[in-house]
Design goal:
Rossmann fold, 6-stranded mixed beta sheet, 4-stranded antiparallel beta sheet, alpha/beta, binds adenosine-5'-triphosphate
């Protein structure tokens, strides 16, 4: 049986004035897939991700996310996704619990749903006793793990992660990826940008963007075979040259 497609991108073009940031992108993502979005700085990843999240409109092309057209039904798209970025994740001057409650409200959870899921989450993260602590006092790794958990508290169809593990130590990155796997096993599709090539190896499929175009899209194993490379790092270097 065919897998359900939760993201479909056809001929996506995004221009800023005369500059083309996304140049005719075509791809799809299956439900429950961990889809890696790679590319050098300025390749156009964040631009495309913002369009997929309904935060920016395509110049042309057709983009469907969770069954809705991002150009005309952005609000429907936003209800069905979670988003987390390295640049912005949590409010530093609110406590762990206050952050959780804030995002649960934004994502439309009722107070009883929030209480049940929020307490479960705190226990799972071993943060129950720490729930009144200000987020500013947590390590970056803990902030990122908490931000990811908060982004999927409303059980979205898809979670978008923009460089979620930037600056985090290897052990915490590994733990973070265990959380990503668990979310995918529960049917949440994970769309993730990263600059860490070891993380590219953890994805089901990977695209590599170069200058606004998709230059490669396949499983890490196939890409390594195709480029006769020992690692995803070598595939990336071969393409980025
Ligand atoms: N609002 C904007 N107006 C004009 N140019 C923009 C705008 N947003 C992005 N760009 C340009 O589009 C290009 C792609 O940027 P984008 O942020 O999508 O790249 P990226 O692949 O996410 O890079 P990074 O890995 O550094 O986050 C860059 O040259 C950037 O300067």
């Amino acid at each position: 049986m065919d897998k359900k497609k939760v993201i479909t991108v056809e001929n996506l073009v995004k221009k800023f004035g005369h500059f083309t940031a996304n140049n005719n992108l075509n791809f799809h993502v299956d439900q429950g897939e961990i889809f890696g979005f790679l590319g050098a700085n300025g390749a156009g990843k964040t631009t495309a991700m913002r369009i997929l999240c309904g935060l920016s409109s395509p110049t042309s092309g057709k983009v469907e996310v969770a069954g809705f057209d991002v150009s005309h039904q952005a609000e429907e798209v936003k209800k069905r996704i979670g988003y987390m970025s390295q640049k912005f994740s949590l409010f530093e001057d609110l406590s762990i619990w206050e952050n959780m409650r804030f995002f649960a409200t934004v994502y439309g959870l009722s107070s009883s749903e929030f209480k049940a899921r929020g307490e479960d989450l705190l226990r799972k993260l071993n943060l129950y006793k720490e729930r009144k602590r200000l987020v500013s006092t947590l390590s970056l790794g803990w902030k990122q793990k908490l931000a990811f958990s908060v982004a999927i508290l409303h059980q979205p169809s898809i979670v978008f992660l923009d460089e979620p593990t930037g600056g985090v130590d290897p052990i915490t990155r590994r733990q973070f990826w265990e959380m990503i796997y668990e979310a995918a096993e529960n049917g949440i599709t994970v769309f993730v940008t990263t600059h860490y090539m070891d993380e590219a190896e953890y994805c089901d499929r990977v695209t590599i963007m170069v200058d606004g175009r998709i230059d490669a899209l396949d499983t890490p194993a196939e890409l390594k075979k195709q480029y006769n490379a020992a690692s995803m790092n070598d595939v990336f270097l071969a393409l980025a040259r």
